[in-house]
UniProtKB/TrEMBL annotation, chain A:
The lineage of its organism: Bacteria, Pseudomonadati, Pseudomonadota, Gammaproteobacteria, SAR86 cluster. Residues 39-97 form the 4Fe-4S domain. Residues 113-142, 143-172 form the 4Fe-4S ferredoxin-type domain. Pfam families: Fer4_21, FeS. It comes from SAR86 cluster bacterium. GO terms for molecular function: 4 iron, 4 sulfur cluster binding; electron transfer activity; metal ion binding. This is Electron transport complex subunit RsxB.
Amino acid sequence: MLPLISHWLTQLVISSSLLLIIAFALLKINRYLRQQLTAQKSLVNRINRALPQTQCGQCGHPGCLPYARSISLGEACNKCPPGGIETILELAELLNEPVRELDPAHGQFRDFCVAVIREDECIGCTKCIQACPVDAILGGPKFMHTVIETECTGCDLCVEPCPVDCIDMINQLTPSLSHTASLYFDKHSSSGVNS
Amino acid sequence: MSTLKQLAVRFFNSDPIFARRTVGGIQPHPFKERSLRSRIMSTPIPQQLTIPIGAEGSGEITLLVDIGDQVRKYQKLAVLNMSVEGCSDVPVHAPTSGVITSIENLIVADHSEQQQLCISLAADGHDEALQLEPHTNYSQLSSADIVSLIRDAGVIGMGGAGFPTADKLSIYGESAIEFLIINAAECEPYITADESLLRERADRVVLGAEILKQASAARRCIIAIEDTKLDAIAALKQALQNEMSLDQTCELVLIPSKYPAGSERQLIQCVTGSEIATGQHPTDNGIVMHNVGTAYAAYEAVVEGKPCISRFTTLCGQALKTPKNFEVLIGTATGFLFELCGIEASLEQRIIVGGSLMGSQLGSDKAAICKTTNCLIAASAIEFPTPEAEQACIRCGFCADACPSNLLPQQLFAFSKTLDTTQLLEHGLLDCIECGACDYVCPSHIPLVSIYKESKKLIETRSQSLERSDYWQQRFQFRQYRVKKEKDQALSRKPDASLKPKLAAEQAVKTPKDEQGFISKEQASRDIAAAVARVKARRNEKNK
């Protein structure tokens, strides 16, 4: 009788410990997956923060957040012309990648511009209003439209749909681009600190 | 040092007050003797004056005169409303009578190296003045009256920052001010404007300090001066003894002579012992500081009723034959002053505005003196040689010893090179007062301050662009939300989906129900039969 009981007991112990191990492993796996997910999320957030949020779609994605998701999954980070060299530098540092030049297929660097509607030519078709990603254009059907200068991201998306071509992109000079570029070249030309 | 203290003790009958020492700082050669040899000289009226109003981005400018207008001395020419928080209007007055010839953007003798809108005035030499309103009994004026008198006189901080004095006084009118500190610590080499002013007109400076004390309702008024300026200390002591009868006494505090003792935060720490936290103003700690020149201007504004049309400026440098201090009209061209001193063209190399450590080079000798120009140096090549080539940082740590703000300049330099803004902020770059002490001691001749200035600019542009992109993101998300909401609403507005349940509900109300709320079979068949009968009856009626 005794050996039988001990046999049962050993079986019980083994099976319960197995169960415990499996439960523990499951917990670990769950935790690992969650960590991966949050890391991915925080990486996407950090990439998204580095992007200029002009929502221009020049990278081929409908907005900055989708592009950030795509970068976190391995897409190249040199497809954002409005961000300037600053964005490329920041992203390269964030992703621990070598700095690459801007992909010319997605446009050229340029100074920050805002859209300005030539108001006497506007026919009030509302097409630009629908194209604007940040609701920066005011106006109603068959009434003159105007761009709120402080809200405009300079994304160019309203220029294309305008049937009478009455939208101009006007240069708003910002020194940041040239300034940062010069600092960048300083950084790479001189050795800096001996450490 | 001990001999100096003994000397200072001789000047005092009672125990002199010595301030505590502060961290860091350097002791460069002062180069002050030459310009202190002569007395303050009032300049003759130049033929042409170029009166600076303000830079284009600095605020809203309202011009009160036009080209061709005849103006009189002390007449208001323009009003500048600075776009800095807490600033109100600062008027600019005509230094002499004459005709306005042009209004254009020109370079002025200023640290900012920016063009300012200037009114050019061709003096007619008559110096016809408007009637002034003196207020000799200033002690009977209320604090608000004094502030408005100072505001109308267009007095701004004469130390260099140029913040409107009236605003500095009125912001603090409400909170309790413990200390009013009059800053007479002119610590930068070459500059002697404040020292010579104290030497010759200490009584009026003390009166000005009393006026500022009354206006800011401060409990104590302290005049802080470096312990090496013996003539000025003696004059101040004399003036203070004369003032004793008025029962409103200022105190004199001697501070150790080193650079940058006259910087606002360092001087406050030296005199009161309290350190101003990052991002706070001295007033948050109940302290307000004014320059000696500002105190003098406040005296003129209140007691004499005279607007701020002149200031004290040091002219010095090896290239000048007789360096001296001038009481110079605002808008005088720098070249005019150099000619008054006599210039040795063979020696002249460059003109520097401000002292030798914080000053900046001036391109043209036609630049006008503005209200903040405290010193002009016509430097020879020996005095200011071209800076030697920059070498690599050897981590000697001299800069960390010299820094008066307790920062680590070499770390800041390394982070500036790698554009690491987070680390720069963590290491307190924004607490850097750009005094140039680290530049002075650096054996590798690294232009640290200019690198920090660049880094500060970078941090500012980065934070601005981040702020902007956050806002855009918010707008984009709101638009997506709005578009989705409109789409959903359009879907639910389809007629079939919304009308059907409504009809059923109406019928349910009309038809009688049994106890459980269901319509029984018999009831339904009876209803149908009744409906059919009603239709038949209607048809019959129609057929008839």
